[in-house]
Amino acid sequence: MSKIKINLQNIIAIIVILLITIFGVKTLISSHAQSPYASTNAASGTITSPATVQIDSSASSGKSVQFGLPLIKPLIPVSGIYLGAWTHPSVSGVANIDSFTTNLTNFNNSISSSNRKLDIAHIFSTCWTTPAPISNMNTVSSDGGMPLVDWGPLPTAISNPNCSSTATLSPSSYEQIANGSQDSVIKTYADALKAYNKPVFLRWDWEMNLKDPTHTGLGTSSEFIAAWQHIYNLFQSDGAANVAFVWCPGLSGGLSGFSTWYPGDQYVDWIAIDGYDHHQLGAATFTSNFGGTGGWYETWSSHNKPLMIAENGADSTISGGTIDGNVAEQATYLQGVQSDLDSGNYSDIKAWVYFDSLGTSGDWTLGGIGLNQFINIASDPNFQPKF
C-alpha cells in the first residue's frame, strides 16, 4: 500500500477556496502551474500574493470585505516535481558577471520552447549580516517562481565577492549563534523574509558536513544543530511562517556522517542534498549518487519529509575550458535524471534544482545538446508539479 501523506498547507489553501465559494463570492479562480502559491482577488478574478483576498460580495450586501490569509510555506506537490536552477552560466569558461535578473531572464528565455519558466530560482545570500536579497526574490516571484535562498556563516578566511567590504562574513562560531548573541541579525533576516509575504525556501549553512573546526572554525556537528534549532525557533516566534527550512548536506562529504548534522524532524521542512556528476557515469550517475540500498534516498525518505536535490550538474567542458567540449556526457546524465525521476522510484523527491554555472570543481553550465535535454525535462509533465 502506498503511503498517504496529508499536507496541512495544501488543506489550508483548499479550505480558503471553499470558504470563498460558501460566501457566494463572485470570482473567477484560475490556476497556474508556475505559481504554487496564490490567493484570489475576487473582484478582478486575478491571482495575487497570499497576503490578502479581496471579496466582492455585492451579490448579497453590496459591501466589500477584506480578510488576510495566513502566510504559507511552499506547497508540497501531491505529484510531480518542482523544476529549479541556479542561473549563472559561464561565458567561454569565465565566470559570469551579469546581474541576477539578467541571468534569470536569459535562462527562462533559453527554455521558452518548453512553454514554462522555472518553479524555483536559486539565490546565494551568503554573508551573515548582508540584508536578505528581497529585490532578487521579488524578481523570482514576478516571474511566477519561488526563491531558494542560501544564507549562512561562511568562513572568515574565504574571500567572497558577494560580500561588501562592510559585511561580516560570519560569526566566530556556531556557539555564538546558539547563545543568543547573534539574535538581532537573525531577527532582522526573519523580519525581511516575513515581510516578503510569499513562500520561500531557506538553506541555512548548506553543505555543513563538508566543514569542520579546522576548516572553518565554526564548530562541531552538535554545535551546528544547536545553532540551527535556535535560528528555527526565532523564525517561528517572529511569525515567519512562509519560510521553509531546507537542511542540505553535501554528497562529497560522505553519507555516513549525515545524521550527526541533522537538527531533527521538528526543525526541518525539506531534506535536501547537493551532488554532482563528478565521475562521469552518464545515465547511471543519478542512481549511483542518490539511490540504491542504504543510499541517500532510502535513508532520508523514511523521515516523511519532501526531498530536494538542491544542487546538481554535469560538466560541459574539456580541460581547455571552452563550453560544449563534453556536452554528450551532460546530455546523457540529464537523460538519466529524467528517466530515474520519471520511474516512480523516487516519488518523495519533490524538487530538482540544476546548478547552471562555473563551480570550483567543474563547469556545469548547460550547453548544446545538454541544454536541449534540460528543455526536454522542462517539457516533461512530471516536472510540472500538481497540487
Keywords:
387 residues; alpha/beta; TIM Barrel; 8-stranded parallel barrel; two-stranded antiparallel sheet; 10 helices; 29% helix; globular
Number of strands: 13
Order of helices and strands: HEEEEEHEHEHHEHEEHHEHEEH
What shape does the CA trace take? Answer: globular
Class computed from helices, strands and strand pairing: alpha/beta
Q: Portion of residues in helices?
A: 25-40%
Quickly give the CATH architecture of the largest domain: Alpha-Beta Barrel
Q: How many domains, in number, for the residues? A: 2
Q: Report the portion of residues in β strands.
A: 15-25%
Indicate the CATH topology of the largest domain.
TIM Barrel
The N- and C-terminal alpha carbons lie at a distance of 21 Å
Describe the protein's architecture and organization.
The protein is α/β, with parallel strands linked by helices and 387 residues long. It has two domains: 8-68, no CATH class; 82-383, Glycosidases (TIM Barrel, Alpha-Beta Barrel), CATH 3.20.20. The chain contains ten helices and 13 strands. The protein has helices at residues 8-22, 100-110, 134-142, 174-178, 183-196, 221-238, 285-290, 296-300, 327-342, 368-379; strands at residues 39-41, 46-48, 52-56, 64-68, 82-88, 120-124, 146-151, 200-204, 243-247, 270-274, 307-311, 349-359, 362-363. Strand 11 (307-311), helix 9 and strand 12 form a beta-alpha-beta unit. The chain is globular and about 50 Å long. The protein starts with 7 loop residues before the first helix and ends in an 8-residue tail after the last helix.
